[in-house]
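Entry type: protein chain
Record version: 2
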Amino acid sequence: MDITTNSAPSARLLDLTRLTRRAGRPFTGVDRVEKAYLDQLLTLDTPLFGLVKSAFGYVLLDRAGCAVFHKTLETGDFGPADRLSSVKRGLDPMRARAESDLRRICLDRCLPIRLSRMLRRHLPPGVHYLNVGHSNLTERVLSALRLIRDSRTAVLIHDTIPLDHPEYQRPETARSFKVFLQTATRHADLILCNSAQTQSDVLRHAAPLMPKTVVAHLGVPMPRPGTPPSGAWDGHPYFVCLGTIEPRKNHALLLDLWQDIPDAHLLICGNRGWENDAVLARLDAKPPRVHELPGLDDGQVFGLLQGSRGLLFPSLAEGYGLPPIEAAALGVPALCNDLPIYREVLGNIPVYAPASDRYLWAQEIRGLAGSDQTGHGAEKCDGQGWSPPSWDAHFKTVLTMI
């Protein structure tokens, strides 16, 4: 059956598995989306439940439990790990603490084999399940939900990069994502797509199936710059490259160029990722005027970005790409690889240069470095008066359908 605006949910069940597994870590873009859904659904009158696949089974939260979990995510004040957590060897300590908190506040919990019974005991007919974190979308979960009368499932797909660019992934990531996407396109009542580009990619991989899809750009809150960290770049022109240090983000291009960029500093703001030994070795060698700044909070990053000559974003593939949107919201120039998603969301605001054209990248960086621009917000780029996509618009589209 199609989901329509007439099929209002009796309750919503939000999957919170991803946020639980990544407890205590800096939020990625996908984490922020799952958190934004939790923020929004807690403001609505519709009954809310949360589902988490833990190391020992499943945990079900009611609205009160979701609110407590939400507050803990905001404060980072997770409680101590319980005795059960010690049974699972190798469990990340922060995840152990988060799961222990959930067991203390949950409405119910169960072993995997009893998931269907637990959900039928507590969830009303007509519940709508939302999975927006690319986690825990399994046949077990979907089978359990199908036994609840008039239940519906919506899945948000952020991108199909693991299938389109497996060279940038761990081998197991491509395999698991293929299963995830097949499960979503075959069984979800609605596929939420963060862009028209993602929608096109999903339908291409789903063929000959034609799942019901809707495009809703992700909200990007207006950045709030804080006090930036100080360093050797103070008083000099500098650029920011923002994102996990992984092959797809193409830090190698900037390192290749930087020895020929006079005077300017490069600030790499992001944690180290995977399968990127060559780039990490180059960073460990401490190249001149290149600074690795992991673990900064949003205010520090935005403070650095606001005072920079520009954001450099040579990423080779993106499903949405938050940093160029955040730069545009601050009025900071952004030099990006020419990817369709940026044209869709940002139009002509960024400066585009194909990642294969090193001469053009060097030329554009030198031009920005030699300008007299400093951190003056919207005066710095052609996006004057531009506002980023809002969560209000996103949820206005999505929550009338699921």
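Comment: The mean pLDDT is 93.
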